[in-house]
Amino acid sequence: MPPDVPQMPDPVANGAFIPTLNRQGAIWLYIDEITQAYLDFAAQSKGTMLEIAAGYGHVVIKALAAGAAKVFANEIDAGQLAIIQSRVPTQYSGKIVCCQGEFPEHLDFPDGSFDGIYNARLFHFFDGNRICTSLTKMYHWLKPGGQVFLVNDAIYRTIFKPLIPFYERRVVAGDEWPGFIKDVRSLIPESLHPSTFPATMNFMDPTVLTRELTRAGFEVMRAGFYPYTGAFTLGRLDGRELAGAVGTRRFVGESEL
Ligand SMILES: C[S@@+](CC[C@H](N)C(=O)[O-])C[C@H]1O[C@@H](n2cnc3c(N)ncnc32)[C@H](O)[C@@H]1O
């Protein structure tokens, strides 16, 4: 490995995840239903893909192995991007393009660049305005008929149990962003060590994802809660641990029914 490529940390928590270099969450080592749908789409379309916030490239490599013609891998962290580049098997080295940049503000592509876009576990760190901007950019970067695949944390996890009543009260009250919790730590009991939790989270759900995809112009193919099936027991609760969705960019002249 070239000396300027940082060392990828070892997996922790029974191999459930690998911490990021920049303390921006973790890279989760399991494949959920939406991620599998993205990999199936790469296999079937053999197209050009973009993965935003690609971590250490686990899904980038799987998309290439599935048959993607090219994968653009984005990361905000230059060290992680160097790790992605170094991990891609040599037979795919002509098919990977690494793009450093803070999405959505500092990442741009021409209209109609991609067949598929995949993004996991980034929106739950964004506020509503940033999510709107992100989806509008994603929409324009896709070719007509292209698909976006989104995976994010829902609140239904053992580790976030103290936050669930707060979130559900907001859902009942019709809050536009019921999962946006500015001060997560203030709702976590001392016994669970609040300082180890992220400061702010925007837990996603199918209602929010459907509304925002529609607002950006997408046809929503599916949106739902999905189970977390990995090894981290505190990440599990009742099969609603993830909020995921798939949207399609409409063809010109195609309108919402
Ligand atoms: C929770 S990790 C998720 C990584 C991977 N997508 C996964 O699901 O395993 C979030 C990742 O997003 C990256 N990141 C954070 N903010 C970003 C931004 N604005 N644009 C691009 N990448 C970002 C971090 O460096 C980190 O690798």
Question: What's the structural blueprint in terms of helices and strands?
Answer:
Blueprint: E1 17-19, E2 26-28, H1 33-45, E3 48-52, H2 58-66, E4 70-75, H3 78-87, E5 96-100, E6 114-120, H4 128-141, E7 142-153, H5 164-172, E8 180-181, E9 201-202, H6 206-216, E10 219-226, E11 242-248
Parallel strand pairs: 3-4, 3-6, 4-5, 6-7
Antiparallel strand pairs: 1-2, 7-11, 8-9, 10-11
Helix pairs in contact: 1-2, 4-6
Task: Report a brief summary of the structure.
The chain is an alpha/beta fold.
Tell me about this structure:
It is a single chain. The protein contains six helices and eleven strands. The protein has a seven-stranded mixed β-sheet, sandwiched between helices. A two-stranded antiparallel sheet has the order 1-2. With 257 residues, it is α/β, with parallel strands linked by helices. Helix content is 26%, strand content 23%. It has a single domain (17-154, 204-248), classed as Vaccinia Virus protein VP39 (Rossmann fold). The protein is globular, with a radius of gyration of 18 Å. The mean pLDDT is 93. The structure holds S-adenosylmethionine. S-adenosylmethionine is lined by residues 20, 22, 24-28, 53, 55, 74-77, 80, 102-103, 120-122.
Arrangement of strands in the largest sheet: 5-4-3-6-7-11-10
Helix and strand succession?
EEHEHEHEEHEHEEHEE
The separation of the N and C termini measures 53 Å
CATH superfamily: Vaccinia Virus protein VP39
What's the CATH first level? Alpha Beta
Low-confidence regions: none
- How many helices? 6
Rg from alpha-carbon coordinates: 18 Å
| Strand percentage | 15-25%
Shape: globular
Instruction: Summarize the main sheet.
Output: 7 strands, mixed
Helix content: 25-40%
Class by helix and strand content? alpha/beta
